[in-house]
Specification:
There is one protein chain. The protein is built from 9 helices and 8 strands. It is of the alpha/beta class. The chain has a single domain (about 5-210), classed as Aldolase class I (TIM Barrel, Alpha-Beta Barrel). An 8-stranded parallel barrel has the order 1-2-3-4-5-6-7-8, surrounded by 6 helices. α7 (about 175-180) links the parallel β7 and β8. α1 (about 20-30) runs parallel beside α2 (about 50-65) and α1 packs across α9 (about 195-205). The longest helix has 17 residues, at about 50-65. It is globular. It starts with 7 loop residues before the first strand and ends with a helix. Its EC number is 2.5.1.3. Its cofactor is Mg(2+). Belongs to the thiamine-phosphate synthase family. This is Thiamine-phosphate synthase.
Length: about 210
């Protein structure tokens, strides 16, 4: 995967947003996010036809801005929509299985330790999400913070393999995440709760110039 696509990687579901989710996504796309992952999980998350309809609306919007549309964890939906890719956790479907069903698609994997990092690369991941870097409230089942030293160690282990940092990342600490080895930052609440999404995304993008 082109590392530039990981620059500002926005993850969102309807439960994360303070205002209309599609409006939130549109503002983020207009501001210049480089990748989008639909993660529709948690109490009150859409299911069934409403979930698919929302996913299609997000996908159509991403296509109009030529931004990759990634589905979190839901292989069936990713294949049905012909999404650009899927992101899986350690407890989700094996990469090799998805690879067989969706050749040429982007596959991202969540990584929390050295063994998982090695396995993700061996299994054919296109990028890994490392975290949580800092404490996060966006996931109720989040693991303890991995911290910047772990991110630096994974960069040394992985060479030039695409890495995005996730978990508790803000406009203020994004540059530290990048300087510790991440190609980009993956964020949820910093955009979903922003009063000025355009400015927030610009700040996150500007960090990459430092």
């Amino acid at each position: 995967m082109d590392c530039n696509r990981l620059n500002v990687y926005f993850i969102m579901g309807t439960v994360n947003c303070k205002k209309d989710p599609l409006k939130t996504l549109e503002e983020a796309l207009q501001a210049g996010i480089t990748c989008f992952q639909l993660r529709e999980k948690g109490e009150g998350a859409l299911i069934g036809a409403a979930y698919e309809e929302f996913a299609r609306a997000c996908q159509k919007m991403c296509q109009s801005y030529q931004v990759p549309f990634i589905v979190n964890d839901d292989v069936e939906l990713a294949l049905k929509l012909n999404a650009d890719g899927i992101h899986v956790g350690q407890e989700d479907l094996a990469l090799s299985t998805f690879r067989e069903q969706a050749k040429g698609k982007i596959v991202g994997v969540s990584v929390h330790n050295s063994r998982e990092m090695k396995q993700a690369i061996l299994n054919g991941a296109d990028y890994v999400g490392i975290g949580p870097i800092y404490r996060t409230k966006s996931k109720t089942d989040a693991k303890p913070p991995a911290g910047l030293p772990f991110l630096s160690a994974m960069r040394k282990q992985a060479g030039n393999f695409p890495i995005v940092g996730i978990g508790g990342i803000t406009e203020e600490n994004a540059s530290a995440v990048r300087s510790s080895g991440a190609d980009g930052v993956s964020v949820i609440s910093v955009i979903c709760h922003s009063k000025d999404i355009k400015q927030t995304v610009e700040n996150l993008l500007l960090e990459n110039i430092n």
